[in-house]
Structures are given as C-alpha cells and as structure tokens.
Structure prediction request, 175 residues.
Amino acid sequence: MNANTNNFWEYSVAFYREPGIAEACLKLQNQYGFDVNLVLFCIWYGLHRGLLPTLLLQQALDFSHHWNALGVRPLRDARTMLKRDARLQSLSSTADIDVLRENIKELELKAEQIQQRELQHLADASPVHNAQGKPQIDAMQENLKNLCELTDCEWHTAELQLQLLLETADTVLAR
Prediction:
C-alpha cells in the first residue's frame, strides 16, 4: 500500500481499492446498518494504535451519528432517490439529473472525508493504548466487536464481510 497509512483518509482510500473491500463495505452499510467509516476507523486504529479505548469509541460514535444525520445521510438519500425514481428516467433532463447525482456523490464523499478527519483528530487527541501484546489483527477484531456492542449491529450477521476486511487489512499490512 503506497498511501501514508498513518493518515486515516489515505489509508481508507487505499484499503477500499483492495479486491472485494468496496463490495463488503457496501453490504455492511446497506444490509447490516454499519457506519463504514467507523468500521474502517476500528481497523485503522487497531493497525496503528491498538485497542480503542471505550471512551474514544463512544466519542467517535457520538460524533459520527450526529455528522451522518446532518451531512452524510441526507446527501446519500438525495443521490439514491434521484437514481431510483422511475419518473425522472423519462424526463428530457435525464443527463442533467445524472450530472446532479454525480455532484451529490462528490459532496457525500467530501462529507465522509470530513468525518474521517474528525475521527483521526479524536484519535490524535487521545492517549495511545497498546494492544497489550496482541497481534494487530486481534486488536482490529476486538475494536470491531466493541463497535458492534455499542451499536445495533451484530457481529454474527455480518461476520463474512467483517472477516474479509480483517484478513485483507492483515494481508495489506504484511506487504
């Protein structure tokens, strides 16, 4: 991975490009209700800092919930509605609507970048907790399990996708 892996956004962009990761993340988001940025944060933190302290994870959750309600979800919902509304497909302005949808997608991506920047800022302001001698893969997995415990997302329902992320993160790290 060529990206500066200490930068959360750059790490996430590079990680997302790995085979199968985008699909797994979208499934985690759309079918299981995960906030993908928080999933990636748990992985990134585990790779670079170890176990996420519960207070820091709760701060990340609180901020992300608020930011998603204000910034990310409204943009995603608007983009999705423009794509799925069959009445819009027959309009003479379909090409313009497609451009508008792409512009909204860029804004949504920018909103996610802001979320990740703030999550990294929270992490940078918090003392580092080591993984108490655990391999990074164990720290990442424990961070994800703690995320599941603090949210309505269940590990066992999304285990295949979460394991793929963990295995890929570990493989990418070994390169």
Notes: Residues 39 and 144 are 7 Å apart (CA to CA). The first helix runs from residue 8 to 16. DSSP finds eight helices and no strands in the chain.
